[in-house]
Amino acid sequence: MKSSILATCKQTRFHLLDDRPTQEIDVEGLTIAVSSSRDTAEDPLKPKSKGKSKGKPDARELISDAHLRLKAGVHYGLIGRNGTGKSTLLRAIADKLVPGIPHSTRIAILQQTDAASQEDLKDFAVNAGESQNKTVLGYVLSSDHSRNEVIRKMNFLSKSFETEDPLHPVSAIRKIRHDKTEEELFLAQKNASLKSGARGLQARKDLKAAESKFLASLELLQQEKESIDAVALKEDTQVAVDTLQDLQAQFEAMKLVDIEQQARQILIGLGFDETTFDKPFLTLSGGWRMRCMLASVLIQNPDFMILDEPTNFLDLLGVVWLENYLQQLKDSSQTTIILVSHDRDFVNAVCEEIIILRDQKLTYFRGNLSAYEQDFEEQKLYWGRMKEAQERQIAHIEATIRETTKTGKKTNDDNKLRMAKSRQKKLDDRMGVQVSATGGRFKLNRDMVGYHLSAREEIEVPTDEKGISIILPEAAELRYPGPLISAEGIVFKYEPNGAPILNGVDVVMHMGDRVGIMGLNGCGKSTLIRLLVGNMLPTKGKISTHSRLKLGYYAQHSIENLQGQCQADPSLTALSLMTKETEGQLNEGQLRGLLGSLGLQGRIASDVPVSRLSGGQLVRLALAKVIWSSPQLLILDEITTHLDFYTVTTLASALSSFNGAILLVSHDRFLVRSLIEGKRDEEHRKLDDDFEGVNEETDEAQSRRRAVYVLKAGNLREQSNGVEQFERSLVKRVQKMLPGRGY
């Protein structure tokens, strides 16, 4: 089954009048749907439906009648729950499927391929036109398509002049002109298909002219060399010389040395070492390929830069560097950025406006994510109080209407009946929104939309996004106290004579402890975790565990492992997978209850194959494999990678109420602060509202040991000021790594 994106919108006479690049997008009535078409032929035995069926593809609308508005130079954060269509919207913009985006507008996109396999990334590179032997630095430098086109044409013409045949430059310049007419024909066909009426008539005339020009160019290209006369030879040769000179002038103006220096600085900022610059791109692992692709987007100077989860494969140093780079980019460029990320702190630091995708609509908020959440809570409180007050007023008026009507009918008092009728009219027409759009007093003849309307709009209180709830089971009881896990003097070496990855590490976890481990990629965090869970043995030192310990381990590659199981058994569902995992220790009802508590209810658990679950659903399924046995210790290694920020908030709330111990390895500063440090500041107060019972911590929760460690040079060092201390140290390093503001 193949999927394609269908995008439509309302068009005015101002749309598509020219093809000049734009740095602003303003499209009304945008509808985006994903259609699925099957390659297999229709079953001849299947009865045909009656009536006039046009055989429309099976399309699912993700966005309906929305207003897409992007202003030049603004950094936008796009938020919405998993599966609402964020990546599809970004893909439609990048592919210029949205009518109103000129073909020549430069758009660079980093796609969300966090779950991509090595083969997927290889195909992506090949489809992007990358050769098998492209180096890391060469891959990044080749991402500037306009510069590549200038170089290609310049080299093509230069080689034609290196031969002794005088007809080679003529053939070369004719080939270049033919390619240009072919592109003009494509644009003319596109415009003719999108326009109607008088503009459509003119577009079809332009299309005929473009077709004639294309055919004439093709005829010249296919002309036999012997039939080219001396006049045409002289003219085309001179055109080739002039074109080559123009291309050389453009090439010299591109400051290639500066571009290469900038590419090197970006790669270093994203974690590459200079020794890897000449390494073949296709030999990199999936995570490093994604970093290289991110660098290839950042090196460009597009009109629109689209970044879909750019922090997925970055450590905290890379995240802080990218924050500062994008902030600096705002001062030196008019590039519009549309960003999707589950990292709250990253979105807060980079984005100045928020686009909310909800209920198939797009709404906008000027401010960062924290300001949006605070404003949303204030709006809920404001409109909630107004609605409550009005409901009390309505109840009072209804009571007086009943009493007045009863009295009027009993005494035959027409004044009483008229009074009751007047109050009923007020109840019908004047109850509702009491303030205008500007915040002043509402006036019916001024503020009512539509002259035919006579009643005010009903007060609507903003509601929280309906999402999944996560409830973790209580940890199993221990029959006697003691440390859950204890590591003393751990030393680990991959080679007997090699440098130690871990050197004298001590870790002790008791019931209820909250411990976070942070550090840069490659410092040994995952190695330490594998030692603690017993997957590897230390070179020196001792690791002991409680005799009745049940340990739940969420590995960094849990999602990849689930996808591997799907390939072996495509029919595998969440319910059948958990049945195998528990080996009959839980019946179907208990398994459904467990999966339902993690947001995998009903048919999603039993009927939908695991291969069709979203990234967030796969995380929750992997978490079900971890918690079904009610472990006393949870070890979580990068659990937020595939989640939207709503689910990260819900997960943090559920984990905060867990009565067992938690060892967390994460680059997500919000999760470490809220879960490990236990902070409930104003910026993240929404966390307290998402889960009952966490607004006031119990004495047990307040007495928990909370510690944030940084693993560096094989040593585990506690941070007295938690995440903030580690972040400050990284900011100092980033300031030395950023490219100059001249770029």
Q: Report strand order across the widest sheet.
A: 5-6-7-4-8-9
Largest sheet: 6 strands, mixed
Derived from helix and strand composition plus strand pairing, the structural class reads: alpha/beta
Using the CA coordinates, give the radius of gyration.
32 Å
Distance between the termini: 44 Å
Q: What proportion strand?
A: 15-25%
Mean pLDDT: 81
Helical content stands at: 40-55%
Low-confidence stretches: 39-56, 114-131, 681-697
Q: What's the total number of strands?
A: 18
Q: Judging from the principal axes of the Cα atoms, what is the shape?
A: flat
Tally the helices: what do you get? 25
List keywords for this structure.
alpha/beta; 6-stranded mixed sheet; 743 residues; AAA+_ATPase; nucleotide-binding; single chain
What can you tell me about this protein's structure?
The structure is a single chain. It is built from 25 helices and 18 strands. The protein is of the alpha/beta class and 743 residues long. Among the domains are: 378-447; 557-631, no CATH class. The chain has a six-stranded mixed sheet with strand order 5-6-7-4-8-9, with helices on both faces. A six-stranded mixed sheet has the order 14-15-16-12-17-18, with helices on both faces. Strand 8 (353-358) and strand 9 (361-366) form a beta hairpin. Helix 10 crosses helix 25 and helix 21 (645-656) runs parallel beside helix 22 (669-676). It starts with a strand and ends in a 6-residue tail after the last helix. Mean pLDDT is 81; it is low at 39-56, 114-131 and 681-697.
